[in-house]
Amino acid sequence: MLPAELNWHFTHIGGGALLKPLQAQAEALGIADRISWLGALPQEEVLQSYRNSDLFVLASKIIADGDRDGLPNVLMEAQSQALCCLATNISGIPELITSGENGLLVDSESPEQLAEALQTLIQQPELRNTLGKAGQTHLRENFDVEQGIDQLVDLFQSPQSS
Fold first, then answer.
1. pTM (2 decimals)?
2. In terms of residue numbers, what domain contains 142?
3. pLDDT over 50 at 106, yes or no
4. Which domain CATH number covers 135?
């Protein structure tokens, strides 16, 4: 759905049962030459890939049996590297990303919205940088592991009311 003249390259990291069908779909659509399929990688290489990227996209959706991502760690990892994130507005994702403030969210059932947001972010590097930095700040202020552990310690140490 992206314009043919738009300059983009997609790097896919990971495996799973859908990998081969996705590769076949890319071939059928004539976009396979724009995609690098890296497979599963060690965490250090994934982090380096975030650092080498301009944008992180996670198009989560609710599948037929109701299964869905909660708050995907990959979004938090990408934001920790000040990488602009584009995701779908399901489950806990809106707790991490406020669309237009620290990333962009689209409806999970709208490929058109996803394509439009992708095109906007590809064409506007200053917007990507602003949203990426805001995402990193939001993550550090609201999802800090040490702060979360401190809150749990306080909770467990406080006297329980009877």
1. 0.85
2. 55-153
3. yes
4. 3.40.50.2000
